[in-house]
Amino acid sequence: MRPTLFRVLLTTALVTALTTAGCGSGSDSGSDSGTKAEDAPTIGLFLPESKTTRYEAFDRPLFEAKVKALCPTCKLLYNNADQDAGKQQQQVEAALAQGVDVLVLDAVDAKAAASLVNQAKQKRVPVIAYDRLISDISYDYYVSFNNVRVGEAQGQALLDALTAKGTADKGKIVMINGAPTDPSSADYKTGAHNILDGKVQIGREFDTPDWSPDKAQQQMEQAITALGRDNIVGVLSANDGMAGGAIAAMKRAGYTTLPPITGQDAELAAVQRILTGEQYMTIYLDIRSEAEKSAELAVGLAKGEQAAATTKVNNGAADIPSFLLDPIAVTADKIKDTIVKDGFYKASEICTGAVAAACAKAGIQ
């Protein structure tokens, strides 16, 4: 009896082990849940910073959700560099060492990232430049917005506001541009100058390291000191975070009525400021389309598939197959039919506290 029982137990254990080994599942953000498929591709998403709220609130979850919908067995590897190019280098190199199959990279430093792309190419790992164009090396795709048009939309909105107020030729504007390490910043700046040059006086212009709201506040304080509070009629801010810094500087300087100020990213705080009149406009970027398109391309690359690009963008070394989305300029009267209608924010998220009355005036409920 004893040998027979032993054989039964041994057979049962072997069947159980083989059954378990044959059943696999994907992992969430690189960690296993139960068992895993050994041949499931790993897609790495590398974002540059978290001071701009869009990255953690929208880009990451939208990208990850789309990848999982298209490829349930795909594994996801995510890192945020906290605006540190050295940290991002370590993150990407670690991912390559771990055998990542596709890199989706929003570079902290577009030029420095070329070496990371080169390392990926040596390992035959395809690369998608996400949101920011990586310079001076060829790679598979670039997905972003038409950044020159972003700057043009900001410049035109500011010019329209100044013209309506009759102040376009009555003073000077301050330009607060983005990080000099981000090629998108140069495009935004080019677009804004395309509209504003020859039509307004630019009193001060700054490039803002790290897109930092704190540094933007310091720059605005310098501009107020140099130009005089009453001589500043408008502010061209490249994004909402820096607009918030500039507004803080103007309030501190004693402005009772703020001049028109632009922004970008449709951050919740900025949307609320637009409704209450502190900020004039923002650029609404359809981040869902950007993130989901990038996810589609990444899954395709993981499966060995190529997609036909809608255009090409030269990055100094090659014409990169690109997908560029159009920006939307949003003032208070357009929030309901864009940001709220698209579900970017719910009315209940926007219309809190002192903003409720402004929401009612704008028909947002």
From TrEMBL:
GO terms for cellular component: outer membrane-bounded periplasmic space. The keyword rRNA-binding does not apply. It is found in: Cell envelope. It comes from the Bacteria. Transmembrane segments: none annotated. Keywords: Signal. This is D-xylose transport system substrate-binding protein. Pfam families: Peripla_BP_4 (PF13407). Residues 43-306 form the Periplasmic binding protein domain. PANTHER family: D-XYLOSE-BINDING PERIPLASMIC PROTEIN. One of its GO terms (molecular function) is carbohydrate binding.
